[in-house]
Amino acid sequence: IGLVKFRKSQDIIGTIKNVTISKKSGHWYISFGTERELAQTPRHPATSAIGLDMGITKLLTTSNGEVIKPKNSFKANQIKLAKLQRQLSKKVTFSQNWKKQNRKIQKLHHHIANIRQDYLHKITTTISKNHAMIACEDLSVTNMSKSASSTTAQKGCNVKAKSGLNKSILDQGWTMMVNMLEYKQQWRGGLLVKVNPRYTSQTCSQCQHIAKENRQTQSKFECVKCGHKANADINAARNILAAGHAVLSAEGGCGKGRPLKQKTCDIREKVA
Ligand SMILES: [Zn+2]
What we know:
Elements: E1 15-24, E2 27-35, E3 49-54, E4 60-62, E5 67-68, H1 73-89, H2 96-130, E6 133-137, H3 139-142, H4 148-155, H5 162-172, H6 174-188, E7 191-195, E8 220-222, E9 229-231, H7 232-251, E10 269-270
Parallel strand pairs: 3-6, 6-7
Antiparallel strand pairs: 1-2, 2-10, 3-4, 4-5, 8-9
The structure holds zinc ion.
């Protein structure tokens, strides 16, 4: 493609292995994939471990009892988007005005995605900085965004429409969040352990008794065996943390056989 000018937003460290140029809603971006040897494996400054329960109304509930609300960037801009789309439907397809309107819609989509990404980056950086080990549900096992019915059973929440749930899940970008946690932990020498989400919401975090009846309502957990009462999401987060510890001890210590290759986050640069 010949010579291309670009604005360098950060130093390129290491050997450039590949270059990707992309176009997103009228803006061009260039990103470099690099490789370098680390002088030594990074050691995570923290010693604590945390379990994370991912949800819809609460984006995250930690085993420490903290709650992080989702940033529904999509919901906030939904009215605006609907208005733009209504206006688009009144225009003649492929006309200049139609194209102009389409660009406006693309721009808003891009704006929404940026808000979401920024929010997730802030959350994941904080968690990754403070905890050497993070345990969360393995989303590939849960397969939440693909099937609304299984999520209903698993999370025990009222799901009105499959599309509505999927939209809200996509809005929060659970997968994106887990990916961010994964590479940020690798950068710092910490660990992200993905656990099987099975029974995490039905198990008592005190006596490990598993029963559907433990979960009386969406928010309340009360063990039918030992009487332990807790917020359902905190109880689940504690089970996830316990499952994470179990995975580690089964593997025999700290992340044996884990890939040392680091993932890079996709910081993109705007081409001038
Ligand atoms: Zn119990």
